[in-house]
Specification:
By secondary structure, the chain is an alpha+beta fold. The chain has 2 helices and 6 strands; from the N terminus they run βαββββαβ. Strand 4 and strand 5 form a beta hairpin. The mean pLDDT is 95.
Amino acid sequence: MGFEYKLKAKFTDKQTSEIQNLLGNSDLFEKKHEYAHQLFWDFRYAENTGKIPNISIIFEKDGIYICQWGSSYAWTDLDELKNYIENEQIEYELIDYQE
């Protein structure tokens, strides 16, 4: 089980599209796949050859679900996402499901 977070924010359609493009162009982006009627975006280090990715993300109506499989820090390897949110001055709440 990974470390789960919710980046709760009201993204516009344009912002969601830009974030998806940003993440889809990441060197760590591996694939998108559907599971339990949700579209997962998986990110993986090249040396990780196991079944579980390093990060899984789901875009939801009220924000972005993040599961960090290899780190307890929500922003690990998601600096570009964090920078985008800060540069766009998007208000958000980071919910830590471990608490």
